[in-house]
User: What shape does this take?
Amino acid sequence: MRRVTLIGAALDLMLGVLKVLVGWLASSQSLIADGVHSFSDLATDFIVLFAAKHGSMEPDEDHPYGHGRFETIATVILGVSLMFVGIGIAWDSINRLFHPEMLFSPGPWALAIALLSVVSKEWIYHYTMRVAKRLRSHMLEANAWHSRTDAISSVIVVVGVGGTMLGLDYLDAIAAIGVSWMVGTIGWKMAWSSLGELSDKGLGEEQLQIIREAIMQQEGAEHVHMLRSRRMGHNALVDVHVEVDSMLTVSEGHMIATAVENAIKESDQGVTDVTVHIDPENDERAPSCDGLPGRKKVLEILSRAWKDAGVDLHWYDVRLHYLGGRIVIDIYLPDAFVGRMEDIERLEEQLKKSLSDLPDFGDVHLYAALGSRRSERD
Ligand SMILES: [Zn+2]
Ligand SMILES: [Zn+2]
Assistant: This one.
């Protein structure tokens, strides 16, 4: 991939120098415009190579998300400069069309260089396409198509220069306008998409749909919401809320989060950074659990409320579920607990009743190990 890009860059450099030089010496405005086009392609290749070499996502302390945005900023600057260059050349050509005495009369060398450009660009189109197919790289495929538009750009120059040599002396200037229109359009597209990226524009709906489907295929992922994305260079960052069964353990929830993360990265949408937020319920609809007491406070409240029942929470495994704006409590009785089923049920009733006037609390469930239950049969 590096090799193809390097060959393309070398070709753009050679063609750019030749076109501007010969365009100037053999006085062809359209060839000069085409030369500027080649230099703009060279600059793009350079940005791509630079980004590839410095690993656009390599993070450090100052830039924890990597340096992809440097590429973006460089692309905005390049895009805006291309727009100005395109407008400049077009303006100059229009001016000459209105003052025919200022029109250039290009010589045969200009034609030769334009033809050389058409042939070499068409060659690199086929070469890049072959490599793109082999590596299944969409980026290289796009590069290949770009080479073909470069060839078309040079075809316009051939027509312009050839026509002028045959006596249609305004054709070179018209070709120059055509080529600078292409240069300006390339610049506009670059600047516009990179500005979108800088303003944290998200991925397209089609891409988001693919990501959503990849998430929902993961076992345990019940709903998806707050799927947000940002682009950075050639990569994208995603954060998402995934709803799971409300009673899962932390480790199972984490396992699902990791599976979702991998599925998003493997969905082929260029996502390299994923943050998954696990929801035990739909936090957009369910009452908020904000402001409910934390574990330490809860244990204090429970110890006080259950003092009469003779429950010493130190001995019990207490699990708190913050759901629907209330705290649901699971209590696992210690293995050493010896009691009959009725005792456990009675205790559970008692605990429920003593919490009934505390608005923060929901249901209470007691669980006993099989060993202690077996004791009732003894
Ligand atoms: Zn180009
Ligand atoms: Zn949520």
Summary: Residues 2-198 form a domain with the Alpha-lytic protease prodomain-like fold (CATH 1.20.1510.10). DSSP finds eleven helices and six strands in the chain. Residues 372-378 have pLDDT under 50 and may be disordered. The CA atoms of residues 340 and 374 lie 9 Å apart.
